């Protein structure tokens, strides 16, 4: 009963076991970076470029789902004037624009099914 238990140790004194304990967490972080963080950063960069390229007569969709046409871009400000119906103009913040509606060209039409 007076004999203490003996535990086996590797030649490096347990340094490799510490690294091996953190290896799964490092691997999980790397996977999260390439699967979640990096694509989200790319999408945010594209959205900032889209907002910076807004100009007059662009058809836009706001975050609230309102379709409209940009009638005036106020330089040096985050505001846009958008016409949502004939003679109905509202001022919206540039950040609320979720997308720009691109017109479909005449030669890009989808052929009818027969």
From TrEMBL:
Family in the record: Belongs to the YajC family.
Function: The SecYEG-SecDF-YajC-YidC holo-translocon (HTL) protein secretase/insertase is a supercomplex required for protein secretion, insertion of proteins into membranes, and assembly of membrane protein complexes. While the SecYEG complex is essential for assembly of a number of proteins and complexes, the SecDF-YajC-YidC subcomplex facilitates these functions.
Subunit structure: Part of the SecDF-YidC-YajC translocase complex. The SecDF-YidC-YajC translocase forms a supercomplex with SecYEG, called the holo-translocon (HTL).
Primary location: membrane
NCBIfam families registered for this protein in UniProt: yajC (TIGR00739)
InterPro entries per the UniProt record, alphabetical: Preprotein_translocase_YajC
Protein's cellular compartments: Cell membrane
Pfam families from the UniProt entry: YajC
Transmembrane segments: 12-36
Listed PANTHER family: SEC TRANSLOCON ACCESSORY COMPLEX SUBUNIT YAJC (PTHR33909)
Protein name: Sec translocon accessory complex subunit YajC
Keywords, ordered alphabetically: Cell membrane, Membrane, Protein transport, Translocation, Transmembrane, Transmembrane helix, Transport
Bilayer topology: Single-pass membrane protein
Domain of life of the organism encoding this protein: Bacteria
């Amino acid at each position: 009963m007076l004999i203490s238990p003996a535990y086996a140790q590797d030649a490096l004194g347990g340094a490799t076991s510490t690294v091996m304990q953190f290896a799964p967490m490092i691997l999980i972080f790397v996977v999260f970076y390439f699967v979640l963080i990096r694509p989200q950063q790319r999408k945010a960069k594209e959205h900032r470029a889209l907002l910076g390229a807004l100009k007059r007569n662009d058809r836009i969709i706001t975050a609230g789902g309102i379709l409209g046409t940009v009638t005036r871009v106020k330089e040096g400000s985050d505001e846009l004037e958008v016409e949502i119906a004939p003679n109905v103009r509202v001022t919206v913040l540039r950040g609320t624009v979720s997308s720009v509606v691109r017109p479909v060209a005449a030669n890009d039409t989808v052929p009818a099914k027969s």
